[in-house]
Amino acid sequence: SNKKPLVVVTRRLPEVVETRMRELFDARLNHDDHPMSQAELVEAVKTADVLVPTVTDKIDPSVLAQAGERLRLIANFGNGVDNIDVQTALSRGITVTNTPGVLTEDTADMTMALILAVGRRIAEGARVILDETWNGWSPTWMLGHRITGKRLGIVGMGRIGQALARRAKAFGLQVHYHNRRRVAAPIEEALEATYWESLDQMLARMDIVSVNCPHTPATYHLLSARRLKLLKPDAIVVNTARGEIIDETALTRMLEAGEIAGAGLDVFEHEPAISPRMLKLARQHRVVVLPHMGSATIEGRVDMGEKVIVNIKTFMDGHRPPDRVLPSML
Ligand code: 8YV
């Protein structure tokens, strides 16, 4: 039909994205930017043709149960879709799309930044200046650990994992990875990456472990207390994926006990809440925490918005949207 679809967007998006959405759709933009409550989400799914949620909106079965007949598409503003009960959505005939590809390089940059920040005590050094406690240079003070030559184990060798591997190679790291499936030989060769079929065996040998897989029922607490214990005591853990993939309580306990040397975390199990224990660790050394900034670039957020628009337009034109989430991806 020629009628513009009613598109409900839960959060403020970059200006250019909102303008384009207003031109193309009957866009209901949220001017008071806040994570939507369950009641607001229910209201949205009752009236919308298309819902555009973000990571802060829990589209769970109880919300989906109240979806109106009109709701045909959930076009997630974000790559990870763990905020949506995709299984339930699909079973109700609702298509789900995400925004892959456009945040790959930015997230890989942030992962590398966390590796460097933990290894070279960047955040700690910056704090010394800000606290005005710097007493001058010393040969034995503020020593970190060399990055070059260390072994990096990437858990999840998708787009972001591979982008991280390219950067890691340039930094002289030895790249190792675990993935459900081994990546194609030419890619593996180009990255000079060593495949580990056994995650456990890989973990035991790495200096740095980076989590770069999606959060699904299969990866919830993939880095469990048992697996974290396999790490070398001088290893560091980096996570720019989802907090739920690591047992954060176990990680906290091991960091406190010095059984893991450090961590660089951009995501948390109960964000935006950070436990007081994690906070205390971050105030000491070798723990760097960031507020879910992996894809936070202006360019990235505009590209994500454009992806959302293309997905909606294609779907409304009666075609298969480019970034459909399939059950095989869950
Ligand atoms: C966003 C992300 O912070 O795409 C993802 O999976 O984590 C980030 O790009 C957020 O999820 C957007 O909804």
UniProtKB/TrEMBL annotation:
Annotated D-isomer specific 2-hydroxyacid dehydrogenase catalytic domain residues: 9-325
PROSITE patterns, sorted: D_2_HYDROXYACID_DH_1, D_2_HYDROXYACID_DH_3
Alphabetized Gene3D superfamilies for the sequence: NAD(P)-binding Rossmann-like Domain
InterPro entries, sorted: D-isomer_2-hydroxyacid_DH (IPR050223), D-isomer_2_OHA_DH_cat_dom (IPR006139), D-isomer_DH_CS (IPR029753), D-isomer_DH_CS1 (IPR029752), D-isomer_DH_NAD-bd (IPR006140), NAD(P)-bd_dom_sf (IPR036291)
Record Pfam families: 2-Hacid_dh (PF00389), 2-Hacid_dh_C (PF02826)
Domain D-isomer specific 2-hydroxyacid dehydrogenase NAD-binding residues, every copy: 112-294
UniProtKB keywords: Oxidoreductase
Keyword Oxidoreductase recorded: yes
The keyword Signal is assigned to this record: no
Family, as annotated: Belongs to the D-isomer specific 2-hydroxyacid dehydrogenase family.
Name by which UniProt lists this protein: D-glycerate dehydrogenase
Organism per entry: Alsobacter ponti
